[in-house]
Amino acid sequence: MRVSKPRVADPRLPRFAAQNGYDLSMLRARQVSASDFREIGHVLAADALILRALRRLGPQAQHHRLALFLGDVALPDPCYGEGEDFKKCWLWSKNRPFSSYRRGARQLNDCRSRAAAVCFLSPMYQVNFSDQAMRELAQLPTLEQMEVVEAFTAVTPDDLLRGSSELGIVRRSGHTYHRLRVGEFRIYFEASEGSLLAHYVLHRHTFADFAFRSHLPFPEDEARIEQEGGFWKYLDEPPKR
Question: DSSP for the chain?
Answer without folding.
Answer: ---SPP-PPPTHHHHHHHHTT---TT-------TTHHHH-S-EEESSHHHHHHHHHHS-GGGGGGEEETTSSS----GGGS-THHHHHHHHHHHH-TTSHHHHHHHHHTT---TTEEEEEE-SS-EEEEEHHHHHHHHTS-HHHHHHHHHHHHT--HHHHHH--SSEEEEEETTEEEEEEEETTEEEEEEEETTEEEEEEEEETHHHHHHHHHHT-S-TT-HHHHHT-HHHHHHHHSPPP-
